[in-house]
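Appendix B. One record, verbatim.
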Amino acid sequence: MAYKDITEYGFGQNGSTYLTGDGAKLDLSVATAKYYIIAITMTEDVTFQALEVLDGGVGLGMANTYCVSTDGPFTLDTDWGGLAGADVTNETNEDSDQVTTSHVFPRGVTMYGFWDNVELNSGACIVYVAPRPDYRNRA
């Protein structure tokens, strides 16, 4: 893959979808999906009902973006190779906080990652897609 291709993914050259309001979603988790969500730009303050990492993180070398409604157990710090006891919030666990409907992502923020399912609880955003790493093998 050329350098040019990698930089294009985050800037919309492969397409985008505008989501607005409770229940608006883009679900690319089906076996025939040839794209995944690579970036999300908040056009209003946003809360998520679902924010699921591509294929559950299998084969990507990263942990999940946790959503309290569906995921667990939560071992993000150690999944990412973090040190036990390094949680600066001094919680009883040493793992990352979960993304819940109470977490507000402010207007103007763009986040990058590997997601195959995004569902809004509130707000509006633009989701940008890119070809899946295995798109040639999909029906």
